[in-house]
Specification:
The chain is mainly α. The chain has helices spanning 6-26, 33-60, 66-98, 101-106, 112-145, 153-179, 181-211, 216-220, 223-228, 238-243, 247-268, 272-288, 300-314, 316-327, 330-338, 345-370, 376-380, 386-415, 417-440, 458-480, 485-501. Helix 6 crosses helix 7 (181-211), helix 16 (345-370) runs antiparallel to helix 18 (386-415) and helix 20 runs antiparallel to helix 21 (485-501).
Length: 512
């Protein structure tokens, strides 16, 4: 294989991708590869069984009209497209700012156009694979029990992944040229989170406003959507026709995707090296930039909390990975606003969502504060006890959770004060539990490994997830007046007890 050729660069990118995937799945322990494969095989079987249980009864009820199918399939395609566009924008930004191997490659006599084409193709493939894995069980079951034409959904998803990557690349380069490299990194992360959530949130807001429900499927099947949707012969249904096996529509979409990819590679590859250098210069400038600020007198606890808040606010990559969790609180808040003055039934739906989001957000932030400390030696040499440092980190995380959730808690109080107290209790329990689990299973890592934090301990991952689920169910059933809420609270406490019992020996001195 000739060095510098497209195939040579493709193999290099494939090796990097496989190493990254195996590292994410096995946490660097190669002996876990067989266990990971068995787990993925078991998960595939379970997901196919679930898809069969859901789709088989629906298809056996009779053939739906073509218009209704087009609406449903199009809605199901827009959702992964928005998520792929979000992931693609984040990946493109990371390529510009974080891939240090590009400096070496671009300094070589290799063709920048080939490097650019392979890197963008790798982004398109990686952004598509996750959506394909999620959609595969439903597609396979539809092809089995309905008709084989549904298998065309696979190339349609690839086309959507390419188009999402092209769109993300054009938006990122446009921001580079208009607002500069330094601002682009921050704005791109915000746009990535917004793009990923805009369709899901938008359709939920429309469902709440028109039908009083959070169900997207119910809304897409409503008479309102059917009356507003274009006619059956409209070009808007081209992706749906292709996904359902229409050969002409599929070939046209594939041709458009290849043409768009080729145009972007040819037009933007010439400035690829300049963009990389500008991004590297902006990153270096942001690290070396400093103002002549004077030291302020703070208490030790206050100084430590301020330090954690500043690190969280300065983390550019944290924004897109946590902002979406905050965005998903918008539909419950809107549902509360819609139901204001008309009773408290909406609060029973909102409270579990709020509690679940709080637990997940607290888990991510506490990992960054506790395990993602990039200067542990510097902190260890400070004249402050380790318990005071840990306490300040916990207080900083809980303060952020309080700031994010307090608006919804206040709206809950206006609708139903009792339910507001239940929501506050659930949010507090979920957040404190997530922080405690991160303390018990903390392991030193770099903040840049935030996406891989689940690989450090599978027990911590499951404990955090089940704890949030149990506390969300507890708060929801308590608000509904069910005595079963006590069983879920007991389940959450059992999860915490097991997690505390199986914590690593190194974390036992900070047990609480």
């Amino acid at each position: 294989m000739k060095p510098g050729s497209l195939a040579w660069f493709a193999r290099h990118e494939f090796n990097l991708g496989m190493r990254d995937f195996l590292g994410m799945m096995t946490a660097g322990n190669r002996t876990r590869e067989r266990s990971v494969m068995l787990f993925m095989l078991g998960a595939a079987v379970v997901l196919h069984a679930i898809a069969w249980a859901i789709l088989s009864p629906a298809l056996s009820q009779g053939e739906e009209n073509l218009h209704a199918r087009f609406i449903l399939v199009t809605g199901m395609l827009i959702l992964p497209f928005s998520l792929m566009a979000s992931q693609a924008m984040e990946s493109v930004t990371r390529v510009f700012y974080s891939r240090s191997d590009l400096d070496l490659i671009l300094a070589s006599p290799a063709s920048a156009r080939r490097v650019f084409a392979v890197r963008i193709g790798a982004i398109a493939l990686s952004t598509t694979m996750m959506s394909l894995l999620i959609a595969a069980p439903a597609v396979n079951i539809l092809a089995l029990i309905d008709h084989p034409g549904w298998l065309a959904t696979y190339p349609v998803m690839m086309v959507l992944g390419i188009m999402a990557t092209v769109l993300a690349l054009c938006m990122t380069v446009f921001m580079f040229k208009t607002i500069g490299a330094r601002r682009t990194r921050l704005i791109a992360q915000i746009v990535a989170a917004s793009v990923g959530a805009i369709f899901v949130i938008g359709i939920q807001l429309a469902a709440i406003a028109s039908m009083g429900t959070l169900s997207r499927l119910e809304f897409m099947q409503s008479d309102l959507v059917r009356n507003l949707a274009p006619s059956v012969d409209s070009l808007a249904w081209l992706p749906a026709r292709a996904a359902m096996g229409e050969a002409g529509a599929l070939l046209f979409m594939v041709f458009m995707a290849i043409a768009a990819f080729a145009i972007v590679v040819i037009s933007l590859s010439a400035s690829f090296g300049e963009t990389i250098l500008a991004a590297a210069g902006a990153s270096q400038a942001s690290r070396s930039h400093a103002h002549g600020r004077k030291f302020r007198t703070h208490s030790v606890a206050s100084a430590l909390r301020f330090k954690e808040w500043k690190l969280l606010a300065r983390d550019q990559w944290l924004i897109s990975q946590t902002l979406m969790q905050v965005f998903y609180l918008i539909p419950p808040g809107f549902m509360l606003w819609q139901g204001f003055g008309s009773g408290s039934s909406a609060t029973v739906v909102v409270i579990p969502v709020l509690v679940m989001a709080s637990g997940q957000l607290a888990g991510g932030l506490s990992w960054l504060a506790i395990s993602g400390e990039d200067a542990p030696q510097l902190v260890a040499t400070a004249p402050v006890g380790m318990r005071a440092v840990v306490r300040a980190k916990v207080e900083a995380v809980l303060a952020v959770i309080a700031m994010v959730t307090s608006p919804l808690i206040l709206i809950l109080a206006l609708v139903n004060p009792w339910h507001a107290l239940i929501g506050l209790a659930g949010v507090s329990a979920a957040a404190i539990s997530a922080v405690a689990i991160q303390l018990w299973f903390r392991s030193q890592a770099r903040r840049s490994n935030f996406r891989r934090r689940q690989t450090s301990s599978k027990l911590a991952t499951f404990a955090e997830a089940f704890s949030s689920i149990f506390w969300a169910g507890f708060a929801g059933l308590w608000a509904a007046g069910s005595v079963w809420s006590l069983a879920l609270a007991a389940g959450a406490l059992v999860v915490l007890a097991l997690a505390r019992n199986f914590r690593p020996q190194s974390a036992r001195e900070f047990a609480f």
